[in-house]
Amino acid sequence: MLEHIFIIPDGNGRWAKQNKKSLINSYTSATEKCIDTAHYLIERKGIKYVTFCPLSVRNLKRKGVEFLLTAFRPFAEERFKSSFSLSLAESTETKVQFIGDYEKYFPAWLNRVLGEVESKAEKNQKHTLTLLLAYDARAEIVNAAKKLLVENVDPTSLDEEVFGSFLPTAGLPPIDLYLTTAGLTRCHTDWMAHQAYFHVSEKLWPDFTEEDLEEAIKAYERRQF
Description:
This protein is an alpha/beta fold. It has one domain (about 5-135, about 175-225): Undecaprenyl pyrophosphate synthetase (3-Layer(aba) Sandwich), CATH 3.40.1180. Helix content is about 50%, strand content about 15%. The protein has helices at about 10-20, 25-45, 55-60, 65-90, 110-120, 135-150, 160-165, 210-225, and strands at about 5-10, 50-55, 95-100, 125-135, 175-180, 195-200. A 6-stranded parallel β-sheet has the order 3-4-2-1-5-6. Strand 3 (about 95-100), helix 5 and strand 4 form a beta-alpha-beta unit. The mean pLDDT is about 85.
């Protein structure tokens, strides 16, 4: 049963160059695509857990990111909040959460927007939409190990379930379908992806369609039966 879909929406910079668009136009289109995809998977396909990994630490360290975030502000404050906290969260009882070290890199206004979205949807339980922002799986494993030491957890009681409860992704099940675009073959989530079926699309994320998504889901289903 397909319960958890994980998506890395890659190829936005290349899409801007190929289509002679600005980076802000590219990332706005990419965000719209994430919103539409989340709605499709949750509302029409009934997927319980949908996770996106749209911004890595490496992305956020690139030159010009601060300017892009500033230009992105009007869109984020309007469309982002209305789509996730009002439309999706309320209509489908979807919990929305953001995981990662993003507060360290994002401006105060964006952290405020994300906090408002989370607070409005934190009690929903039917579905879970997660965005991994400035997320580093290996760093989170190290941090979990440190917490175990601080709390003096008995080593004889330690198993996958106990260790997983110290990770920020605690509560999320293993990934079933791990989907990447733009030919990306890197794995960003060591802990959750150990049982996942990987599907790599050559499409750049803004060009990725519902038909492409259905193709990935059908490929997963063929592998299961």
